[in-house]
Amino acid sequence: MRYFKSLLMALLVGVLPVRAGTRNMRIDNVTGEVTMTVDFTGSTEYQGVSLTKDKWDATTAPTINEDSGDGYAVGSLWVDVTGNVSYILVDASVGAADWNQIDDNSGEANTASNAGTGVSVFYQKTVLDLELNGIKSENDRLTVTLDGASHDIELTVNEGNILVQNLGGTSLLETKGGTGTSTYTTGDILFSDAGNSLAKLAKGTVGEVLTETDAIPDWQDPGWYSLTEDVHWNDDPVTSSTITTIADLTSVIIVGTPIKYTMGGGAVAPGTYYGVVTAMAANLITLAGVPMEVDDGDLTALWIGRPERVIQVDLFVTGAYGDGADATLLATDMSTYFKWGGAEAYLVMYECIHLTVDTGTEPKINVDVDGASVSTADSGNGVQLGATATWVANSAVAIDSATYRIDRGDSVEANCKVGGGTGDAAELTITCFFVYK
Question: Any idea what the CATH number is for the domain that residue 282 is in?
Answer without folding.
Answer: 2.40.10
